[in-house]
Amino acid sequence: MTATHSTRMLILGSGPAGLSAAIYGARAGLAPIVVQGMQPGGQLTITTDVENYPGFKDVIQGPWLMEQMQAQAEHVGAQMMYDQIVDVDLSQRPFRLTGDGGIVYLADTLVICTGAQAKWLGVEGEEHLAGKGVSACATCDGFFYRGKKVVVIGGGNTAVEEALYLTNHSHDVTLIHRRDTLRAEKILQERLHAHPNIKVLWNKAVDKFVGGGTPEGLVGIDLIDTVTGEKSHEPTDGGFVAIGHHPATELFTGKLPMDEGYLLVEKGTSRTSIPGVFAAGDVTDKIYRQAVTAAGMGCMAALDVEKFLAEADFEAMAAE
Fold first, then answer.
1. What value does the mean pLDDT of the chain take?
2. Is 293:285 a contact under the CB 8 Å cutoff?
3. CB count, 10 Å around CB of 62?
C-alpha cells in the first residue's frame, strides 16, 4: 500500500533556504516536512571552506554547516524525508506530490527550495580540483586568492562580473573566452576592457585543469585555440568557471511562471502565481546566489506561509 503524508507545509530542498524555512515553520507549529532531494544539504555539501557565513570568526566547512542547520530544524520539529519528487499536481489544494518510490505528499502549502547548480565545463581535472583552486563562485571564494593570479572562464554577464569582482583581491585577472566577442552587456564590457588589471584571452577553450604542489592544488590551465588548434598553458592559482547556472525547476515547467528557468515570485515576497506555493533561494535568485541570501529567503517563505495559512483558517471559520 502506498504511503501518504499530509502536512500543512511541505518544503522541497534541504539547502540553506529549505532548512531555514523548516526552522521558522517548525517554530510556528506547522510541523513541516522537508523532502531533501537528490543532494541533501544543497551546494554547501560540496563546498569546503566557508568564510562569509555570519556568526563564525573562523573558517567553517560547508558540510558541517548544513549538518548543524538540519539538526536545528529537526530539533524544533521538522521532519526530514530522504526522497526525490517526480510528479507535482498544483491544480488544487492540498497540493499532491509524488516521490520516486511512490510515496504521496499532500500539502496545504508548498515551499520550493530546489536550488540551482553551476554549469561546469566537464574537462579533465575540473572535478578533482574543485575546492582546490577550481570554483564556480568568485564572491564565495575570491577572498582566498588575494594577491594571487586568477582566471575566469566564460563570456556572459556572470563571467565579466566575476572578473571585475576578483580585482578586489587580485591584480592579475585573466578572462578566457572561446569566442572573439563577449555576450555580456555593453556597459559591463566597457568596464572590463577599461580595467588595468584584467586581460582577455580570445578564442581559447579549456582543455585541462592542471594540479600540482603540496598539498595539491591548481597550478595552471591547458588551453586550445578554437581557431588554429594551437595549444598553450596559462599558469594560475585560481580558476573560476562562470558559464551559468541550472535552476532545478524542471518539475514546474508549464506549471509556474519562470524567467530563464528561475521561478518568478511577487516582488519583495516568496509568493508565486499560485496561492499557497512559495519559492526561496537560488531557485528564484539569478543575481546573488549566496548561502546567506538563500537562508534569508527561506525565512521569508516560512513567514509568508504562516500568514497565508492564518488567513485561510480565518476564512474557513467564517464560512462555517
1. 93
2. yes
3. 21
